[in-house]
Amino acid sequence: MSKKIRIYEVGPRDGLQNEVVRLTPNLRIQFIKKLIASGVRHIETGAFVSEKWVPQMAGSAKISKKMASLKAQGNIPKDVKLCALVPNSYGMKLALASDVEEVAVFGAASESFSKMNINCSIDESLERFKQVADEAKKNKIRVRAYLSTVFGCPFEGEVSEAKVVKLTEKMLELGAYEVSLGDTIGVADPKQVERILKKIEKRISLKKIAMHFHDTRGTGLANVIMSLQMGITSFDSSLGGLGGCPYAPAATGNIATEDLVYTLHRMGYSTGIELSELIKINHWMAKHVKRSLPSKLGAAGIPKRVPVKKRKL
Amino acid sequence: MSKKIRIYEVGPRDGLQNEVVRLTPNLRIQFIKKLIASGVRHIETGAFVSEKWVPQMAGSAKISKKMASLKAQGNIPKDVKLCALVPNSYGMKLALASDVEEVAVFGAASESFSKMNINCSIDESLERFKQVADEAKKNKIRVRAYLSTVFGCPFEGEVSEAKVVKLTEKMLELGAYEVSLGDTIGVADPKQVERILKKIEKRISLKKIAMHFHDTRGTGLANVIMSLQMGITSFDSSLGGLGGCPYAPAATGNIATEDLVYTLHRMGYSTGIELSELIKINHWMAKHVKRSLPSKLGAAGIPKRVPVKKRKL
Questions:
Q1: Structural domain of residue B139, as residue ranges?
Q2: What's chain A's average pLDDT?
């Protein structure tokens, strides 16, 4: 049997929150249903954040409620895990009222990024994290954690690897079942991935680590290869490579789910996902966000044999 | 000292021959001079093929002559190696008359691709190869060889790995100093790269092998990483990722030189190339081919630290 890799789809959240075009909650529900139908089993559906700051995520409560009700009715396979991003205890209240079954919390490995992104120090963010995690525990809700700027900070440049290890440990201690290490600005290279994971595995099982690469400089899949070699089996990605900076059209966001799935399947790993369905979702989504998505598979398609006779010379 | 990786720039040939916009020989000379100034030392400058079939390569003789004269006058560093593609002995005559110092010949690992691409069987192509190589030897000209469709054929699908090994050996026997293994249609995955290189290294030193990846499905740099791990030190790439199929706008060509150089430098390898200069050439070239080039570095740039105070929230 081939080794199973877990794909954690962040398109409806990390992807769409960085698109210029805002999709209605109903369209986002359609998107999530299509992802589930293609075989995706872990999906971040939205974020309980201020609509003023992140208007793209407006209506996340509606989405969570709808998906929870579909699951309760047996209209979604039981092994589907849906998650929503929660920044603080206020967000957690909204999430609880929306029947979420898993929440994702986040913090940065760089002090300046933490201050600029969520307007608090790393220590303060861990305090918020703890409040959310405690509330989650009480309500028997799973907690996933993101650690951002692991491979570089836009303000500070290099980030302390010792700090990355320490914060990862801390997040697990506070109750996260998994920490997703983010290359937020897309600067990581495979040697750096190897170096950091070697430091982490001295103290933490890599089964508790997911990797979250952005493909800003084309190194996303190369970093995945190194992570696989190190023993990582959980990766975040977004359908079509949705996302990136909305004000820099050529910049790309997360690695594209279909490019990741193509590569993994060709290498002999299994994901449970139907690649051709992902490509259909890519083309459907491109119409709604009104641009071609950066995914390579979306453009090039699954390799097919061309009948020799039909080829024009 | 960091390990040196050889970058073989194919943008002026493999890149431009697949662009819709045709550049004049004078512009292509400017392009090559800029590449040399950035530190690139191995460049394929053009092709001695029929202008009817490949109009983009018209004027390759002029380019070769000009570059040879600049080199003779000492206006180009001595360690710069320039090469031109030569399909047969007629092309070789033209190349010799244009003062080339190195020629590249090519063949396919798949019978159908050979017939569709160069209208002859693999055996016939090796015969042409031999004629060119013999002529080159007489004239003390170096010969490089391309083997295409190594990782998959658009007509036949899978390609025999035993055949790849046999043809690589044959090309070296006939006089090539290096064989460049091409993922012509961009389907390769890192496990396949590892498997094929393991078969090759049983019979051939990997010092005589270069890898030529296309980034059609985003796996180009991932395949480079595996090749580096196997001991490969020579890679083909094209500035900006120029090329691809001119009739499929989203399809990409060779891996982009700047993305490759960025990744290699971050991993601690040296190339002798100034990355920031490559990015300038990218932006210059984009104007001339009238499109943004697919390179990620061209869009995202070299990571820079952003002053915290200046960031808008």
A1: 6-300
A2: 93
Q: How confident is the model at residue B313 (pLDDT cuts 50, 70, 90)?
A: very low
* B60-to-A211, B24, B81, B84, B91 alpha-carbon distances in Å: 47, 10, 16, 8, 11
> Which residues in chain A have Cβ-Cβ distances shorter than 8 Å to B295?
218
Query: What does the pLDDT read at residue A312?
Result: 45
**Please, which residues have CB within 8 angstroms of residue B100's CB and are 6 or more apart in sequence?**
B64, B68, B82, B83, B84, B141
Q: How close does chain B come to A305, measured CA to CA in Å? A: 5
In chain B, whose CA is at the least distance from the CA of A293? B250
- Which member of B262, B267, B313 has the closest CB to residue A191? B267
pLDDT at A313 over 90: no
In the three-class reduction of DSSP (H, G, I as helix; E, B as strand; rest coil), residue A66 is classed as: helix
Cα separation, B139 vs B116, in Å, equals 31
Say which CATH number the domain at B219 has: 3.20.20.70
Q: What number is the average pLDDT over the span A278-291?
A: 96
0.90 cut: is pTM over it?
Answer: yes
pLDDT > 50? residue B259 = yes
d(CA B219, CA B231): 19
Residues A155, B311: C-beta atoms closer than 8 Å: yes
Name the domain count of chain B.
Answer: 1
